[in-house]
Amino acid sequence: MKISFKNDNPVIDLKDIDPDDIGDVLLKIETSFNIRFEKEDLKHVKMFGQLCDVVQKKVKQRNGEGCTTQHAFYMLRHAINNTVGIDKTLVKPQTKLCNIFPSDTRLQVIAEVEKELGFKMNLLKPKGIVIFTFSVLLGASLACLYFLPAVGGIGAVLAVAGLILAGKFGKEMPVKTIGDLAEKIAREHYLNCRRNAATVNRAEIADKVKELFVHELALEARVVNGNSRF
Question: Model pTM?
Answer without folding.
Answer: 0.82
